[in-house]
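Student: Please help interpret what follows.
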Amino acid sequence: MSVVPHSGLIFGDSRLLSDFFDEACGMRATHALMLAPYVDEAGLGDEVVGPLWRRLVVSARLAIVVRTPAAVDIVSRAVGADAHDVQLRLNPRLHAKVFVAWRDGGRGVALVGSHNLTRAAAHVNTEAGILVRLAANADFARLFSELREFAQRVVQDSRLAVEVRGRSRTHPPPFRVP
């Protein structure tokens, strides 16, 4: 792992995925956006990422965009009945891997890299990414904001597949790829 001194930037490998979730939970993030084309049950149930994922699901407002109907099903099951407020969206053209979490009042963390939400991404694959901490440095605060705005646009441009609020779950009609 490589840290750019005083900048809020960390370049790293597969460990950045768990670092992102750890920092998001540590700051008690109130919002998170996740663009992860591929997801597997082992990734969300991972001994490191899994407990952190569950903490975010029950405490923060999440929007998660995946690429395949199979990934929608996996995430929907992993969200469970205890979710706070989760929008699960489908975008068959999604390739970007971006994770952004923030707390109202100024704290935030973002990860952009090659990581999917899979066990292989966390433990097997050679991954690379940059973790951005919302810092006092205006350039990196601007970078964090741009990553968050990008993720928000992708969320808005993706089809709602499942919405969970408390114990309420809605399923719009099936998505048909044009």
Q: What stands out?
A: The radius of gyration is 15 Å. Helices lie at 15-26, 41-44, 49-59, 69-79, 119-123, 138-156. The beta strands are 2-4, 9-12, 31-35, 61-66, 85-90, 98-103, 107-113, 129-133, 159-165, 168-170.
